[in-house]
Amino acid sequence: KYAALSLVRDPTTGKHTFIKEIKGLDMVRRDWCQISKIISTYALDQLLKYDQGIDLIIENVHQYLTLQRSRLDSHKIPLAHFIITSTLNKMPYEYDNPLPHVIVAKRLLQAKKNIRIGSTIPYIICQGTESSPALRAYHPEDIKKSRIQYEEKIKSCHTDEERLNIVPPLQVDYHWYLTRQILPPLDRLFASIKETDKAQLAYHLGLDASKYHSHIKSSEQDDEDNELIMATQLDDVERFKHADKLILKCPTCNNEFQFPGVLIFPNMNEQQQAQQQAQQQAQNGYISCFSGFTA
Fold it and tell me: Is 252 in contact with 287 (CB distance < 8 Å)?
């Protein structure tokens, strides 16, 4: 699993461009809804922006999460963005566990729909009294129909009392999507970024951040952990001090230089100047290496 920017040279024009590569991350898997993929993709694109510091990246992501929560509360996100799809590996009645797509498939069978092994079942998790999200899974068309029926009944009412007695339409369970579809992929993307954590991401999504703070260990456990510090808790300089430096060779000028890292630059102003110079050179059909930058 990884995400990276590959520097690719066009054999016709000789110009170099960056191509984003994603392998195995949540956003390319089918069992995540569209709004989850949109938010995760924005966060990843920010992380891959090597021309700005990590503090600005985190600030942009936090602001974007707050904006998306506002759009969620204002019902400005299309219903289609909440659809999750899963494939039937066997007939619905052969499943022992009440999975969301299986529940929806059984309803489709009852409605005389053509369902078979290999069918892709779309569903959306809605609000309800059932504790299991699977029992609150509905086909998108069922949600649309419930809204249409509700509006028709409202129009036929003559008094406020009649309107209050009408059963409301199916509503998307926004809290479930925030906690199960949006926050987990973000948490994995920023797991090794010390400038933010799951609690901060949850806070900007409008969730209770206190539920996502790391649990406090007992003093005995702390003493044991202090004796054996995990490598992932060390500063990168200390952690990789014995590792060989990554040496890259420029395909144009054949100069070799030490690569400092995607997000590490000793001086942002100097880096910005070099980036501008590289962009100008790329427009002229060639690119130079950043041999002046060292970790």
Answer: yes
